[in-house]
Design brief:
The chain has 116 residues and is mainly beta. The protein is 0% helix and 47% strand. It contains no helices and ten strands. It has a six-stranded mixed beta sheet with strand order 2-10-9-4-5-6, with no helix packed on it. Strands 1-3-8-7 form a four-stranded antiparallel beta sheet, with no helix packed on it. β4 and β5 form a beta hairpin. The N and C termini lie far apart (36 Å).
């Protein structure tokens, strides 16, 4: 299983970023996928999830209305569009299989820093 997240960076509050996750080594199109994040000194937090067919979308209350998850099963890519970013969104973001519990596979993350 390989999950490679990309697209992070430094952005000012109110800005936007689009994260991508390239998946390989498993049948991506059949699995529920999630984005999780971990801020310094904090626990892992699931921010969004999406069913295999693009339905069943979940957002945590902290990102609802600002983040949008999508997937391209033909390309084996998971996306997270993030808008109106806040300083509290600063974290390492990971894509993960299923709901992204600590036991679910998740790949190398991408750092998002929101700062003026």
């Amino acid at each position: 299983v390989q999950l490679q997240a990309s697209g992070g960076g430094l952005v000012q509050p109110g800005g936007s970023l689009r994260l991508s996750c390239a998946a390989s080594g498993f049948k991506f199109s059949t699995l529920y996928m999630s984005w999780v994040r971990q801020a310094p000194g904090k626990a892992l937090e699931r921010v969004s999830g999406i069913a295999s067919d693009g339905s069943g979308i979940y957002y945590s209350e902290s990102v609802k209305g600002r983040f949008s998850i999508s997937r391209d099963n033909a390309k084996n890519i998971l996306y997270l569009q993030m808008t109106n970013l806040k300083t509290e969104d600063t974290a390492v973001y990971y894509c993960a299989q299923r709901t992204g519990t600590p036991s679910d596979p998740r790949g190398q993350g991408t750092l998002v820093t929101v700062s003026s």
